[in-house]
Please model this.
Amino acid sequence: MSIGPEEQLARQILDLATLTGWRVFRVENSTRLVRRRSGAMVRARNVNIGGVGFPDLVLVHEKQRRLLFRELKADGKYPEPDQREWMRVLLALGADCDVWRPKDWPRIESTLTGALRSVVAFPLKGDCA
Ligand SMILES: [Mg+2]
Model:
C-alpha cells in the first residue's frame, strides 16, 4: 500500500525530529472513515471530545524551550474548518502554530535543526569594512 504525501511528510518529520532532540506527540487521525455493518462508510471520531481538528503534531524541545503545533497537509491542500478553529485559538494564545507541507521542507528542516536561531558572525574583511 502506498502512503500519501502527508503521511510521507509526517514520517520525514518524525525521523528528523527524533534525531534532533524533539519529543513529538502525534495525533494520527482526529477523525477516520470506518465501515458500518451495513457497509456504509461513516466518519468517526477517535480522539477525546473536542479533539477534532487538533493539529497533527505537538513538538517539544526542552533545551531550545520551544513548543510547536503543526498541521500537516499535502501541497495545495488547506486546513478544514475544525482545524482552522484550533489554529486560530492556539495562535490567539501566542502559540507557535503553523501548517507544514512537503514544499516547506527547507523551512521545516531549519526549524527542527534550530539553524534559524544560530547566530553566525561573519568577520568583515578589512577592505570592505
Ligand atoms: Mg493533517
Observations:
- The radius of gyration is 19 Å.
- The first helix runs from residue 5 to 19.
- The chain is about 30% helix and 25% strand.
- The chain has a mean pLDDT of 86.
